[in-house]
Amino acid sequence: MHSSNTQGQPSRGDRHIPVFMIDLLSRSEESAVVVLCTADWVGSSDMFLDFLHEEVADKAQISVVDIEAHPDVKRYLSIEKLPTTLILKNRHILDRIEGVISRRKIKERLQDCT
Amino acid sequence: MNKSIDPVSYLELTFGNYPYTVIGVDELGRVQYANPGARQLFKGGHRNLIGSNWAGIDVQLTLAKWKTYWRDTKDRGTLAYQTELLAAGSDILWPIEVDVVDFTDDVLLLFLHDRVERNYGVDHFTDRAPLANSKDHVDELMQLSIDGAGDMIFWTRPDGTFFYVNRAVAHKLGYERSAFEDMQVIDIAPYFDQAFREDFWQQLRSQIRVEGLFELITKQGKARTISANVNYLIHDGVEVACSICRDMTQKLKRDANLHLSRIALDSAADSIVWLENDYSIKYINQSLLNHFGGDLKEWRGRPFHKIFPQLEIGDIDLHNDVETDLPSRTGQTIRLDLNFGRIDFEDKTYFTIVGRDITESYQKREELRKAYNKIEDLSNKLKAENIELRKDTGADYDMGNIITVSKKYKQVIQEVGHVADTNTTVLILGETGTGKELLARAVHVLSSRADGPLIKVNCATLPASLIESELFGHEKGAFTGAIQRKIGRFEAADGGSVFLDEVGELPQDLQAKLLRVLQEGEFERVGSTETIKVDIRLIAATNRDLEKMVEAGQFRSDLYYRLHVFPIYNLPLRDRPEDIPVLVKHFAGKFAKKQGKKIEEISAPDMKKLKAYSFPGNVRELENIVERAVVLCRSKVLTIPFENAQKERRNTKAFQTFDEMQRSYLIEALKKTGGRITGPEGAGRLLGLNDRTLMSKMRKFHIQKKEYLI
């Protein structure tokens, strides 16, 4: 299981911010946004989404992106592995979780960001 | 000779320091006296010699012969004869000459000397003029003896003048012998004034004999302490005090030194013990008395193991260095480092034991040893964990790799999510190749133990003889080949999880031990009695029907119920055929990337065939089929070499009964026709069977729709 913290804005280069992302970034100004990037064939997604609802729903908004439906988001965020979970706040990506982790760790990671 | 002097004391004073060999024998031939020279010669010792029959030593002597010698000596005063002596404990005969001298009514003195001048201590007579057979010579000999005695002998008169002094008096007090003619007792004993002298003589006259410690002053003014034995004599009608004095100055110095030594021994912090030849206690110092209580008298003569219960006689060796525990009344154990000594003194052997208290350093050493063992354990554990970690990185067991669109399978994953962060034992059931290990790892990773180790044990691959030591570890020397201590997998997993794959293969004797780990969290290493407590979470998996095994008595029912708390049924691929297209796509993409090929789509008819296939080897089999297809693929459209797969299936599948084969063949045909039974495109036509016959067979084999409808 790998995960890494990436501070600051995503590298844009000459790419445009996908519309879906623009919406998420603006919502992150109100409160933290936890974004689950996945696909329908990712077996652990439903379970992990349940974890997120149980552990962070009271502190953050939760959003799900089907990467296959939004390939631009996949490119923009350089997503290699599914599921990948991002924690956004004040238009910044504060944390990036690759794969699935335990409830306790989700809680800790969110606490570190809020 | 005056009767008031004890003859033996007199003899000892006279011949005690003489290099002669002198024996006193009574009328019945029994030895009554032997001087040191004689005692040395007959090594049996003084006590053995006194009272013994002289005829037993003088081999030519008989009692009758001795009686003749006795009479002749009494008549003539002296006698000389030749004979041979037998030494105690030896059969060597010594030819000697004996001069017999009349001494008292009861005793004759025998002076021995060697005939062939062998140096046995009797040769001092050889250069001496032979004794004449007269009374005068006896007196002369006596005079010579007293003159040459090592002890101071002086006779004094009641007026304080000297009647006689021997050479020792003159020598030890530093005067010429002749000087005593003009001297008085007061000159050598200043306290011996008239009053003192009169009292003394009064006492002497009434008691005949006075003993005591006195101080004499030398010519140089130095004081010497003497032990005096003063005898009252009347010589030619004159009163004489005969003083036989032994210089005690050296002895007192020795006594003082001994006293100091004793104080030093008793004030030493070390524990000191002296043992007799028979290893009984002769002395223990104050340090040990303080420790054990009691006094020296109580301890003397007791066996040494009353003090050192762990010590054996063989340990008491000069070159040995032994550590032992000393029990104490308070229950506190003291660790001693013992050194041994051996002293041979006057034919006897003594042993000394000196023990230094090393309790503190011993405790530190023990702590160090324990710490070292712990380090070793941790290092072994780390090694074990590293092995597991390497296995992890080598295998693709990330939960994110569970690819499914099947609602049923997603439900299974939800179950994993629910049970993961509890401590409940999980039993994963499912056919081979369904990814039981993937789920087991998911349980661990999603638990609060994720940072701890996950240790996998495959019960089917470990030999039965090794499995116990592999699981529970062993002590050094627990069995042949156990050359060092080994940490078991359960110990290595402390704080983490243990994945017991193929748990159905666990030998029955170990099932009980496993049950105890599950219930109590404790076990013992093989060859050890020390109970080890561990905090582990067990995840077990099997493709066997444990319930049936319990019924058949192959698996303990109590363990089964303990494992069966939260069973997760892993679905075979045939129960989630909707996953086949996504899995094929995933595997095709993965292998194409690996082999540098570009595959854009998968042949539709082949995909249909795959969906109809029963996959006895499950996802693993599908993965292999796709990998082979990608290797063989020469275009952008992937085709599946299905024949090979079926061939492999036939080869790998267990031999079926005729009914089983018919049943699966019917299902396969029904899958091929999309579930159609009758009509030109139905399975009946495909199988060459009458539709009604097919339906009757389907009833017979209980073939249900869900088995062939994809």
If you had to describe this structure to a student in words, what would you say it looks like?
- The complex is a heterodimer of chains A (114) and B (710).
- With 114 residues, chain A is α+β, with helices and mostly antiparallel strands.
- Chain A has 4 helices and 5 strands.
- Chain A has helices at 19-27, 45-56, 71-77, 103-113; strands spanning 3-4, 32-38, 60-66, 84-89, 92-98.
- A 5-stranded mixed β-sheet of chain A has the order 1-5-4-2-3, sandwiched between helices.
- In chain A, β2, α2 (45-56) and β3 (60-66) form a beta-alpha-beta unit.
- In chain A, 39% of the residues are buried.
- With 710 residues, chain B is of the alpha+beta class.
- Chain B is 40% helix and 22% strand.
- Chain B has 27 helices and 26 strands.
- In chain B, the strands form 7 sheets. A 5-stranded antiparallel β-sheet of chain B has the order 2-1-5-4-3. Chain B has a 5-stranded antiparallel β-sheet with strand order 7-6-10-9-8.
- In chain B, a hairpin with a 4-residue loop joins β1 (21-26) and β2.
- In chain B, α13 crosses α14 (436-445) and α20 (579-595) crosses α22.
- The radius of gyration of chain B is 55 Å and the shape is rod-shaped.
- Mean pLDDT of chain B is 82; it is low at 116-134.
- Chains A and B meet through α2 and α4 of A and α13 of B.
Give a short synopsis of this structure.
Chain A is an alpha+beta fold.
What are the SSEs and their pairings?
The complex is a heterodimer of chains A (114) and B (710).
Chain A: E1 3-4, H1 19-27, E2 32-38, H2 45-56, E3 60-66, H3 71-77, E4 84-89, E5 92-98, H4 103-113
Helix pairs in contact in A: 2-4
Chain B: H1 7-15, E1 21-26, E2 31-34, H2 36-41, H3 46-49, H4 63-76, E3 78-86, E4 93-102, E5 107-114, H5 135-147, E6 152-156, E7 162-165, H6 167-173, H7 185-188, H8 194-207, E8 209-217, E9 223-235, E10 238-247, H9 249-267, E11 271-275, E12 281-284, H10 286-292, H11 296-299, E13 321-326, E14 334-345, E15 348-357, H12 359-394, H13 407-420, E16 426-429, H14 436-445, E17 454-458, H15 464-472, E18 473-474, E19 486-487, H16 489-492, E20 497-501, H17 508-520, E21 522-524, E22 531-533, E23 537-542, H18 546-551, H19 557-563, E24 566-569, H20 579-595, E25 601-602, H21 604-612, H22 618-632, E26 637-638, H23 642-652, H24 658-672, H25 683-687, H26 691-700, H27 705-708
Parallel strand pairs in B: 16-23, 16-24, 17-20, 20-23, 25-26
Antiparallel strand pairs in B: 1-2, 1-5, 3-4, 4-5, 6-7, 6-10, 8-9, 9-10, 11-12, 11-15, 13-14, 14-15, 18-19, 21-22
